[in-house]
Amino acid sequence: MPQQIANSQLILDAAKAEQKLIRMAWQIYENNYSETEIVLAGIIDGGYKLAGILKKHLEKISGIEVHLAEIHINKEDPSAEPATISNGTVSISGKNIVLVDDVGNSGRTLFYAQQPLFLLKAKSVQVALLVERMHKVFPIKADYVGFPIATTFKNHVIVTFDKKGLVSGAYLY
Predict the structure, then answer these.
(1) What CA–CA distance (Å, rounded) separates 31 from 150?
(2) CA 3 remoteness from chain centre
(3) Across all residues in the chain, what is the average pLDDT?
(4) All domains of the chain in start order, with CATH
(5) Looking at residue 153, what is its pLDDT?
(6) End-to-end CA distance of the chain
(7) What is the pLDDT of residue 2?
(8) In what order do the strands lie in the sheet with 84-86?
(9) Alpha-carbon torsion 34, 100, 166, 24, what sign?
(10) DSSP secondary structure string, the chain?
(11) Using CB atoms within 10 A of its CB, is residue 18 exposed (0-12), middle (13-18) or buried (19+)?
(12) What is the pTM of this model?
């Protein structure tokens, strides 16, 4: 167990996190019901894992074809190098994209992660966060939020995953 989890407060257990993700999937479907395809672009590592979970839920509740893409970004300094996207054979041009991350804070990572999506001419870019800390420095607003929490700048949030890739908890430290 990482040290920060040992000295932290559980804010979302596995069952609550799953409930939040199911609700987020329904919201994504409601806002994209007329689409035949959408792309969930997850920020590596936690955002991509969450995108995979959301994909499974969306496929259960809708007839929308859901594709996954990976956004690779330097989370410590997103401006140091351009974010890149690995989308396999899926074209992003003209599609609604949902940018997924585990925790939102200042909006800096999300701001820089969107840049390759604009270059690929996405139809729209929406943002989904499991935990939103609400300390915006960049003008990024999440469209889908599982759990908003007011924290101090000194606090941190970490989302953990089990061996199956499911959320095992979210912790405030």
Answers:
(1) 26
(2) 24
(3) 93
(4) 3-149+157-172 (3.40.50.2020)
(5) 81
(6) 14
(7) 59
(8) 84-86, 65-72, 37-43, 96-104, 124-132, 144-148
(9) negative
(10) --HHHHTSEEEEEHHHHHHHHHHHHHHHHHHHTT-SEEEEEEETTHHHHHHHHHHHHHHHH---EEEEEEEE--SS-TTSS--EEE-TT---TTSEEEEEEEEESSSHHHHHHHHHHHHTT-SEEEEEEEEE----SSS---SEEEEE----TT--EEEEE-TTS-EEEEEE-
(11) middle
(12) 0.94
108, amino acid identity = R
Both tokens assigned to 165: 């890739």
Q: Positive or negative, the Cα torsion across 68, 70, 75, 80?
A: negative
2 close to 170: Cβ distance less than 8 angstroms: no
Q: What is the pLDDT of residues 30-84, one digit of tens each?
A: 999 999 999 999 999 999 999 999 999 999 999 999 999 999 999 889 989 999 9
Tell which phi-psi region holds residue 134, choosing left (phi > 0), alpha (psi between -120 and 50) or beta: left
- Give the contacts of 170 (CB within 8 A, at least 6 positions apart): 10, 11, 12, 17, 102, 103, 130, 131, 147, 157, 158, 159, 160
Q: Token digits for 106? A: 């200042």
